[in-house]
Write a structure and sequence with these properties.
Elements (H helix, E strand, L loop, with lengths): L1 E7 L5 H8 L1 E5 L3 E5 L6 E5 L7 H9 L3 E6 L6 H13 L4 E5 L7 H15 L8 E4 L13 H21 L6 E10 L3 E10 L2 E2 L3 E5 L3 E10 L2 E3 L1 E2 L4 E7 L11 E3 L3 E12 L6 E2 L3 E6 L2 E12 L2 E3 L1 E2 L4 E14 L5 E4 L7 E7 L1
Parallel strand pairs: 1-4, 1-5, 5-6, 6-7
Antiparallel strand pairs: 2-3, 3-4, 8-9, 8-16, 9-15, 10-14, 11-12, 11-16, 12-13, 12-15, 17-23, 17-25, 18-22, 19-20, 19-24, 20-21, 20-23, 24-25
Length: 350
């Protein structure tokens, strides 16, 4: 199974494209579009609440293996730039840049936009990504022209993704939860993605940051009951010993996680942000969890300083109030919600 994030500005055609690629399913600040009718099962995740909500964008990216960045003819606005920065800070490995609404412009303008994007993305994780020109106007004479080419590119990358997923099937299981609710007669149901390992029905495991023992009563994928779910599978889980009201987006089902309210991170500050100052308040994202944190200490080369400038590396000591669960390999993102370009840095726990 391959999970694909569809991101971009509000008027980029992202939602129309996602709806063309799959059947609408779970809807909140993100919308899932499911496609299990072709040779491989795919889930398309539309971050439709972005740019108002950064959480929508980060959720879509962190539950996905592949991203389609939609850029309309109007092109390089602030939010397209912010999406590029987010992908680079996350180190997002695979993606496609879709030049949308091709029916509203001419081929020379599309080529010019492609040239500008190549310059802007040089030196980022997006360098070398494939481009596809398409239209997302279902009323156009050539409605969704270019979408078949996009599907072919997705399928090509999906083969690489699925090979990598198989290599993770034997790792300790880890599930990222993005929705939870109660179902009459069935109890608590959580939706999410198996990010590594293989989850089995009747597994006795924990949920973090609650650090509570639970049991997997049953597993579904695309409304079909299954006995096990390998890496990459989007799942619906009936859980024992926990209620919907106890669960927040980003909770993790696994055997072991770090849980804390305070963080010491080795960080790289984005060159596109403003300086980070002592005592400033940032928004921390890890996996699907987020919370505001205060900068209590900044160290550069082991010395305490009052600020960290754009483009520099530093250690940040951050204090929050909410318990957050994470693993040693998880990448943290920091954002300043008061700025036009909100993403500020990425880092790893020391």
């Amino acid at each position: 199974m391959t999970n694909i994030a569809i991101i971009g500005t509000e008027q980029s055609g992202r939602t129309t494209l996602a709806a063309n690629l799959g059947k609408k399913g779970t809807h909140s600040d993100i919308t899932l579009f499911n496609n299990d009718k072709e040779s491989r099962t795919m889930v398309f995740v539309d971050a439709h609440s972005y740019p108002k909500s950064l959480k929508s964008l980060i959720t879509a990216l962190n539950v996905s293996d592949l991203v389609v960045l939609c850029v309309p003819p109007e092109g390089l606005d602030a939010h397209t730039g912010e999406c590029i920065i987010a992908l680079d800070l996350l180190g997002f490995k695979r993606g496609i840049i879709a030049l949308t609404k091709s029916d509203t412009t001419h081929i020379y303008a599309v080529d010019e936009l492609k040239g500008k994007l190549k310059k802007i993305t040089a030196g980022t994780v997006l360098e070398g990504w494939e481009y596809v020109s398409l239209n997302t106007n279902k009323s156009a004479k050539n409605a969704f022209e270019g979408v078949d080419e996009l599907k072919a590119l997705i399928n090509s990358l999906a083969e690489e993704i699925e090979a990598e997923q198989k290599e993770k099937d034997e790792l300790p299981v880890r599930v990222l939860i993005d929705h939870a609710f109660n179902v009459t007669g069935k109890g608590c149901v959580a939706l999410g993605v198996v990010s590594q390992g293989t989850l089995n029905e009747k597994d006795k495991i924990k949920i973090f940051p609650l650090d509570r023992d639970i049991e997997i009563r049953s597993i579904q994928t695309h409304d079909v009951d299954v006995k096990s779910a390998p890496t990459g599978t989007r799942v619906g889980l009936r859980l024992k010993n926990v209620q919907e009201k106890d669960i927040e987006r980003g909770f993790l089902i696994s055997d072991k996680e770090n849980v804390t309210t305070d963080y010491t991170l080795d960080c790289s500050i984005s060159k596109f942000t403003k300086k980070i100052e002592l005592a400033s308040v940032l928004h921390l994202f890890v996996g699907l969890q987020s919370e505001p944190v205060r900068v209590e200490k900044i160290l550069i080369d082991g010395k305490e300083v009052q600020e960290a400038l754009p483009g520099t590396n530093c250690t940040l000591e951050l204090f929050g109030t909410k318990k957050v669960a994470y693993g040693k390999e998880d990448r943290f993102l920091l954002a300043n919600l008061d700025l036009a370009q909100r993403f500020a840095a990425y880092g790893y726990s020391k």
